[in-house]
Amino acid sequence: MSDTLIQCTDLCKSYGAGPVLSHLNLTLGAGRIVGLLGPNGTGKTTLIKILAGLLQPTSGQVLVDGCVPGPESKAVVSYLPDRMYFADWMKAKDLLDLFEDFYRDFDREKAERMCASLGITPDQRVKTMSKGTREKMQLALVMSRRAKLYLLDEPIAGVDPAARDFIMNTILTNYSSDGTLLISTHLIGDIERVLDEVIILKDADVALHDSVDNIRQNRGMSVDALFREMFRMDPLEGGYFDAR
Amino acid sequence: MDWQLSEERPIFQQLYEEMCRRILTGRYPPGSRMPSVRELAAEAGVNPNTMQRALQQLDGAGLTESTRADGRTVTADETLTRRLRQELAGGAARRFFCETAALGFSRAEAKELILREEDGHHE
């Protein structure tokens, strides 16, 4: 088994205007939990979508488990989008059927157990679930695959602290030790202690990629504190805004 | 949950210290089996790899032993645990003198305070 799971070389992506990712290089190994951090609009979701095979890079190369993102990589990548994509007339059991149909590595029993612990009944419709429950349900489905790479885009953004604990626990107890988890978020304080490494994006590139304990050791501060220091901004200082 | 992790210091280091404390206070008794990496990681809410690293450091310090057959067990070596207990208690004493000194107490006054505290307990 090769230890490199993700390899981005000179990766660029732009949507017309400025670059969202610019000559980004990144190597990520197997068997770790990695935080993808950065302020809003620094390309976290774009990077995840490229890795998931939903977006094509403008230039540069991406390899996931040795392949260009496509059907082979999608079979080993479990992706949690930053928004809900299920039709709201669907019932919980329809979602399980859907995942079972789509993914060979889906562990239905596991998903059912998680649904049960969430208090979701098989006949409950998506429409009647609260926002938090929907997010937890979606995460349960994604984590029930035995994937090599889990891409979780903002899994804890819209839920209360107790649900956050549930989600972090689900992640910790369900990830297999040879799988890698890439979690994008800006709620760093909440997840810092479950991360092995962090990648901080800034100005369309990787500004920092190191282990959490190295950062704490070398800088004497938490990743959360470092992040605040890196991206401190004064609301009424500098810049030029010409609307006319 | 009594895994209180502070912000500034490496997490594995803090996990290691907490587990040392648990072994020296008998919460994980000598010769007993340690909980698994996963159990401990889930209990502390940390990454299993980080917990693994802390446990390896415990092995390195001789406080635990890993064998294929029994998993990880707490050491039964009492000379080692006695020495470490002494070190830990020494640290507590040093911290006490630091804090009282910061509040303007001399060594002699600080000792006085401790004795008075002890008497208070007996009353």
Would you mind describing this structure in some detail?
- The complex is a heterodimer of chains A (244) and B (123).
- Chain A has 244 residues and is of the alpha/beta class.
- Chain A has one domain (4-230): Rossmann fold (3-Layer(aba) Sandwich).
- In chain A, 33% of the residues lie in helices and 25% in strands.
- Chain A contains 9 helices and 9 strands.
- The radius of gyration of chain A is 19 Å and the shape is globular.
- The model of chain A has no long low-confidence stretch (mean pLDDT 88).
- Chain B is mostly helical and 123 residues long.
- Chain B folds into 2 domains: 11-74, Arc Repressor Mutant, subunit A (Orthogonal Bundle); 78-122.
- Helix content of chain B is 63%, strand content 7%.
- In chain B, strands 1-2 form a two-stranded antiparallel sheet.
- Classes of the chains: A alpha/beta (244), B mainly alpha (123).
Secondary-structure topology with pairs:
The complex is a heterodimer of chains A (244) and B (123).
Chain A: E1 4-14, E2 19-29, E3 33-37, H1 44-52, E4 59-64, H2 71-74, E5 77-80, H3 92-102, H4 108-117, H5 131-143, E6 149-153, H6 161-174, E7 180-185, H7 188-191, E8 197-202, E9 205-211, H8 212-219, H9 223-230
Helix pairs in contact in A: 3-4, 5-6
Chain B: H1 11-24, H2 37-44, H3 48-61, E1 64-67, E2 71-74, H4 78-102, H5 107-122
State the gist of this model.
Chain A is of the alpha/beta class. Chain A has 9 helices and 9 strands. With 123 residues, chain B is mainly α.
